[in-house]
Specification:
This protein is α/β, with parallel strands linked by helices. Helix content is 34%, strand content 23%. The strands form three sheets. Strands 7, 8, 9, 10, 11, 12, 14, 15, 16 and 18 form a ten-stranded mixed sheet that branches. A six-stranded parallel sheet has the order 3-2-1-4-5-6, sandwiched between helices. A two-stranded antiparallel ribbon has the order 13-17. Strand 4, helix 3 and strand 5 form a beta-alpha-beta unit. Helix 4 runs parallel beside helix 9 and helix 5 packs parallel to helix 9. The mean pLDDT is 94. The structure holds NADP nicotinamide-adenine-dinucleotide phosphate (NAP). NADP nicotinamide-adenine-dinucleotide phosphate binds next to helix 1.
């Protein structure tokens, strides 16, 4: 049986998918029927001669299409298109993390109700098969912990800033010149994109639902060169990590975090993504690869199309909202970087009653970096108290900086 495919969007990913379908579609039992774009006057060299190019509505209404691939991006229009396609009993594949993280529960339920496939492997970590793994392959084990680098833009910027080699603004400009960052990078550098992807993964691995707004999120745009120098001096690098820990209350967090330089995530550089999962029976697994880009993302979409053609079943799950722990209860050892003006002799008195104990203390070899404190395991709430207690009274800018340290898996 050949699966008849309609593609919404012929941009970076849509164009790549259409190329792949032209090369390998026949062999894989996939045939491109119709393509939708916004500007129908522009020539589309990827689209084979004879394949009509029109509107989203034309693709959705075409009875000769079995599966609609949504690659237009954005939220409302894409969501409406996916809903309409499912209502017309067409299977859907999408790479749209915004739609899946905001409406995934409802769309999964609708797809199950009308008994068609709804797949979104490319919405998280590009070509890494992490959605499939969490949704089906690991269903027989329990994921207790997850650590992910899920945003290639941030990882590229942080890689360029590591060891204090570039300032944030310079690294962002380089990412933009290389096509790894948008002209408006806010969604990426604020951590919001990573939070959307983590919310999708947590919903899959926990069986409950987690909206992206509930993920405690900090971005990378205020990390200073001195923070990278401090991390380097202690044998760490700073990564924007997506983190999940199972507990009575599940913990979800996106934050710049120190990881050992030689750990798997520490060694994941440039635009690469990595996901490590710790399961109760099989232990740790690591997935690493390109998280974005034309062909890595289009390949993940192609994978979903093949799975739909095979009639692959999905494991059904409940979608009650997940009970989450408060952000302040996150515990870790921390790096505190404090101004040199604070005397080491006064530290004991200042930290008394905060719940934070020092495990290592050293003056940085760089004057501008200040004094470095590695703490024992402490909660984020306790660290906030310690930051208050260590703030020198005058300039607000001298509030100590704190980063959680994530031990090696
Ligand atoms: N790029 C990546 O590396 C990557 C990685 C992972 C996931 N994704 C996701 O993949 C999706 C597509 O991203 P992209 O980078 O391929 O975007 P893109 O290059 O901007 O392409 C979007 C395509 O959709 C078409 N389009 C937009 N609005 C439309 C409308 N209302 N009706 C019909 N067509 C419309 C555009 O038409 P015109 O060509 O006429 O403008 C264009 O062909 C997004 O959800 C994105 O988050 C992308």
């Amino acid at each position: 049986m050949t699966l008849r495919v309609g593609v919404l969007g012929c941009g970076v990913v849509g164009g790549g998918l259409i190329e792949l379908l032209s090369q390998r579609g026949e062999q894989l039992g996939l045939s491109l029927q119709r393509v939708a774009v916004r500007d129908q006057t522009r020539p589309r060299r990827e689209v084979p001669h004879g394949v009509p190019i029109g509107t989203v509505e034309e693709v959705i209404r075409d009875d000769a299409i079995d599966v609609v691939v949504e690659l237009i991006g954005g939220l409302d229009h894409a969501y409406a298109a996916i809903r309409q396609a499912l209502e017309r009993k067409k299977a859907v594949v999408t790479a749209n993390k915004a739609v899946v993280s905001a409406h995934g529960d409802e769309l999964r339920a609708l797809a199950a109700h009308v008994q068609v496939g709804f797949r979104y492997e490319a919405s998280v970590a590009g070509c890494l098969p992490i959605v499939e793994i969490l949704e089906n392959d690991l269903i027989f084990d329990r994921v207790d912990r997850l650590i992910g680098i899920l945003n290639g833009t941030c990882n590229f910027i942080l890689s360029r800033c590591s060891q204090g080699s570039l300032q944030y603004a310079e690294a962002l400009r380089e990412a933009q010149l290389n096509g790894f960052a948008e002209a408006d990078p806010t969604l990426d550098v604020s951590g919001a994109d990573t939070a959307q992807k983590l919310a999708i993964l947590v919903t899959l691995l926990s069986g409950g639902s987690c909206a992206p707004e509930r993920v405690s999120t900090t971005g990378i745009d205020s990390i200073a060169k001195e923070d990278h120098l401090a991390a380097e001096e202690l044998g760490y690098v700073i990564k924007l990590l997506a983190l999940y820990r199972r507990g009575d209350r599940h913990q979800v967090r996106v934050a710049p975090t120190l990881v050992p330089k030689s750990s798997a995530v520490g060694l994941t550089v440039e635009e690469y993504n990595a996901v490590e999962v710790e399961c109760s029976h099989i232990g740790w697994q690591l997935y690493l690869g390109k998280g974005a880009g034309r062909m890595p993302t289009a390949s993940a979409v192609l994978h979903d199309l093949v799975r739909i053609r095979e009639g692959a079943a999905r494991v059904s799950r409940s979608n009650a909202p997940l009970t989450l722990a408060s952000p302040g209860s996150w515990t870790a050892p921390w790096l505190l970087r404090i101004p040199r003006e604070i005397s080491v002799a006064s530290l004991g008195a200042r930290l008394a009653g905060t719940g934070v104990d020092v495990s290592e203390l050293r003056r940085s070899k760089h004057d501008s970096v200040g004094t470095l404190i590695l703490t024992q395991e402490a909660s984020a709430d306790a660290i906030a108290k310690a930051q208050d207690a260590l703030t020198v009274d005058n300039p607000a800018s001298s509030r100590p900086v704190a980063f959680a340290v994530e031990p090696e898996a």
